[in-house]
Amino acid sequence: MTQYATPDLIDPRDDPAWRSTGAATRAVYSRWSPHLSGIASLRMALLHRDRACPSLFALLAGARRHQAYAEHPDGHITGLNYAPFAHYIRVSHALPADVHLNLTMTDVVDLLDGGHMVMASVSEELAPRPAGVPESPGGHVVLAIGHRAGRIHFRNPAGHTDHAREAVLPLDRFAAYFSGEGLSLDFPSSPRPYPYPLPAGHWSRETGSPQELVAKMRAHLADGRWDRDQVYTRSQLCDVFDVAADHVAPALAILREEGLVETRANTGTRPKIPGRSWAAPNGVPNYEHIERTVRSRIAAGVYPVGESLPFLDALALEFGVSRSVVGTGLRPLKTEGLLVRNPLKQLVVSALQPQHPPAADPKNSGTTSFTNSVPVVDIPGSQITTIPAESAILAREQQRVAAELINGMPIEWIAERLHISVSAVTAHLRAVRRKMDLSNSSSAVLVHALLTAREFARPAITQEVPNFDAFECKVIRAIAEHTLTKDIGNAIGVRARDVRAKKDAVITKADARNAHHLVGLAWAWKVLGDTAVDGPGTASTSSAAGPL
Fold first, then answer.
1. Does the domain formed by 286-349 have CATH 1.10.10.10?
2. Is the pTM of this model over 0.70?
3. What are residue 395's phi and psi, to 5 degrees?
4. Which of 109, 237, 281, 514 lies 20 to 30 angstroms, CA to CA, from 501?
5. What sections of 51-152 are H helices per DSSP?
6. How many C-beta atoms surround the C-beta of residue 378 within 10 A?
7. What is the CATH number of domain 210-271?
């Protein structure tokens, strides 16, 4: 695995497999690929831990959001910037990462002996060939993975031969290239595979033929990695399966002939499910098909009384039509009074409809159950269970989104898990903020407000409580109560520019995904809330939801 789609090509402009990296265009790939040694090193580390990893340019997008690279007006690119890159690795991939600015080879060996991998900054002379004495260290990143008999073993993302990619050098020879700077990745503290926004296994090694791609697609369809409601465009399939576009079309043709997938022009491809099709039954217009289907779902309780329907975009995607066709199909139901609009302009099932026992949405089976009509959101693999209060002011969809937020999920993950669009998640959270009178708050402050207002019961958790000292408890409370960095700094008595480091340290210690996940965990641990404790190591582990 290297920073290039085709490792043995020196010039990325000539690379025919550029699409497999996730780049939007050949020009983007050519411009960025020489700068991706650090990204490729992270990708190798994630593949080692999770047996799966995002594409190069998916990782690059995350790193750029965290300011790990800088683009200048003249088009010049600088980076990798280690501090924000380490923050990105910790927060987005749950892999503890530490920045080192003055490592010796003895330090590197000690880290390797401790089970770490080291992303080492070395001379660019090491990029094309591991030979020659470098004139100046730094500029390229390699992944050191071990040592034996006075020799260091490392992976070189810019290696153009097998020997160069899986390289071995004497420690003193490697030291001549090594700048002393880099990142250490703490694998002993991160033993479990990490839940990416798409299911693990979506990314794999390059497929050599359309037949091999068909086999992979069949496997993803069989074990649920290609979700029944997931629609992929052709370019997305290239990213997901790490293949060139010329392999996708013949593979889809085979799967369509086998009845495993269905494709709609200008929409994409999704798994084919008996009894469901983008096409309406013969002789029935699409709008009438939509009306009959929604009416039957209301009667069956799939759309319970008082709850909102999925957004028009979601229904349009499900039925493979435009929003206007969906609107036409729903118009008779609105005329009959079965559907009404609430103050948020959402379509809600009217109370005129006879009430039915709530039924779990088949799209979300396994993630939402119902107890006394109150949804209990228990996300597989998460650390918190959140239960909305019976007197909650939030609509059902808002409760589901807010529960995911308390569990520390980023917006993209919430959309993936609830089978709604990112814009729909954003709209729900915006509505929740308005109801809580927190229009411009951070997600951490919103989570704290929801739990303080008892919109959710105190989260339940069985994970052991970290031994927070008094200052760390103070940092957690400041994150929960203040949105602006300067206000957090004032609350904990540090300069604004030092706040990020303090926040990152507590987030890492709590093994949290992000700041709002930290707040949810803090409530579960009783570091926050009515029975919160302020002293070090005095919080007790909660095994059940606390009193409302």
1. yes
2. no
3. -70, 165
4. 109
5. 56-65, 82-93, 105-113
6. 17
7. 1.10.10.10
